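Fold this sequence, please.
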Amino acid sequence: MQYSVDDLRAASSAGILTPAQLDSLLAFLGTRPAATQATGPKFDLVHVLWYAGALIVISAMGLFSTLAFSQMGGRALALTALVYAALFAWAGDHLWSVRKLQTPGGLLIAVAVSMAPLAVYGVQDALGLWSKFGKPGEARDFYIWVKGSWMFMEIAAIAAAAIALRFYRFPFIVFIAAFALWFLSMDIVPWITGSQFGNWEVSRKVSIWFGLGIVAVAMLVNVRQRSGDFAFWLYLFGVMTFWGAITATSNGTALDKALYCAMNVGFLFLAVFLGRRVFAIFGTIGIAIYLGDLAEKVFKDSLLFPFALSLIGVGIIALGLYYHRHQDAIRNWVDLHLPEPLKRLRPANA
């Protein structure tokens, strides 16, 4: 078994290695040939083809299904979904268990899980089991329109993903669940408001709390996972839901906008604390949005604003260079002074 630099740093944080021993080990490993060092997950042309094929099948049976496909009728759609799910589940299990090819096997299991919404749609359509909001449209409209009647399809997808993860520990299956959770955060609003088309402000508030909930679940998963990145998709859709709802706030005061910028700055520190780039990406976009608003409304006619902003950017780059040169010392200081409750929330590889 090979161990990465992150594993060694985690051992140092746990007190197994002293800082001096860690530095000696890292210096020794730096002199070793590249071929003997631990490498990250392999992702080459073969993997690209596997993932691309799985995504095309998922899209073909959902987003890109034609009108003629929907006109097959509910029973035919449900039967098609069940046959697809059974075939892909059988093939995925064969590759996973017999051939020991976990990547293509796990992807086929994910395809089988993705058939759950179509199967539920077919059953509802055949038996007329639509909610009080009525039939929401064709099967492909599930990926386009926000409707309360889609909620049962999303719950089915989440349940199918949870069952699959019980037997196949493949992180991409979480993508199906996270995607359904994102849709659920929007489609649950009509049930709360009682209005067929929902309410924008209620939708925004629900998305804020729903996104925070998904991020909290992602943090819990991140701390407990031992192999594979099962938290990635939860972080992505959770942050996207929460950050998007906050960003959609309109007509905020100057203080509200300053707090928004502070939140995005906090995202940058959270990215370092958790070792998750998704917080850095959305945080950077949020800061850019805030600065753009300042340039447009507050400092529209200011000659010095672009120069001052450039100096701030240069300062941030300089801060990054300083951190790069002293990151081991900073990391050790943080590990030494970080409260125990926060240490338990921080993943070992952060």
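The first helix runs from residue 5 to 13. The CA atoms of residues 217 and 234 lie 8 Å apart.
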